[in-house]
Amino acid sequence: xxxxxxxxxxxxxxxxxxxxxxxxxxxxxxxxxxxxxxxxxxxxxxxxxxxxxxxxxxxxxxxxxxxxxxxxxxxxxxxxxxxxxxxxxxxxxxxxxxxxxxxxxxxxxxxxxxxxxxxxxxxxxxxxxxxxxxxxxxxxxxxxxxxxxxxxxxxxxxxxxxxxxxxxxxxxxxxxxxxxxxxxxxxxxxxxxxxxxxxxxxxxxxxxxxxxxxxxxxx
Length: 219
Description:
The chain is built from eight helices and seven strands; from the N terminus they run αβαββααβαβααβαβ. It has helices at residues 2-16, 41-44, 79-84, 86-89, 111-124, 142-159, 169-176, 189-195, and strands at 20-24, 49-54, 70-75, 98-101, 130-136, 187-188, 208-214. The relative contact order is 0.17.
């Protein structure tokens, strides 16, 4: 999932001309220096503006001093306060905005809260915008269920009771709809990244799905 924000941002910039992004991810994804250097979204879209949103209980990481690109940051205290945050209000609403979500755990207490967050973002985003989402999925594979439990334990220890809630494929799709999906549709995350020509598809069981929903109105 570390590659998801980087390649989604690059695709949205190249294909849809988006140069402003709001990134919601887990604590390890906060700030420009949080990922491996080759996977920072700003390195994929060097002329873009990024707002990094930290989970409410996280300890925000400083933006790397080596990065001279445009970054801002805020803390998530609910989707409505987020849209009133100074870092978000400074984005140009006359142009499209890309939302990058690669870890939904910190942003909602349950699936209904997550739906509310996505619906509110859709109502706020200007024409030409997009929402890129990847989310852990349920799977009947026993090995993968064991992997989910191990990962959940690691995430909870890392982020301090950070919730871990795999969703059904249909639920993940419903978070992106009613906006139309990009030409890739909803795919296993490894296959989605392969469609963006950044990696080879994985033969491992499906652990997560990814998709990009596009604003139905043209800019």
